[in-house]
Amino acid sequence: MTKLQDVVGRFDLKDKEDLIFDLELIELAIQMPQIDYETLLGCRKNGPSHDGNVLSKASRDYLVTIGAVARVVVKNEQGYNACTYKGWHLAKIYEFLNKIEPYNWNFADGTE
Questions:
Q1: Would 41 be classed as within a structural domain?
Q2: Positive or negative CA dihedral for 43, 68, 58, 61?
Q3: Is residue 19 part of a domain?
Q4: pLDDT in tens, 25-65
């Protein structure tokens, strides 16, 4: 069984800034609607994703506002969205809290 410690690390080894970051992400994950999670997962799994390919533009805009997704330029073309490190952590916490089988975030061999 996965523990919160497995997702965010040991709280007793973190400094105040890292603890605040983790607690803010936990709060965001608790309040996050599924559509925001699915939009975030799409940016992470398929990103950078073109504006026309995101699941929800409203969710994407919200995720950009909280720093979970960034608007990026790809091959000199604007209009792409990518998951940030913050978004990566937020999705992992959301999966833990909602007992979702985690997406394979570390596929070094190129498989999912």
A1: yes
A2: negative
A3: no
A4: 999 999 999 999 999 999 988 889 998 889 999 999 999 99
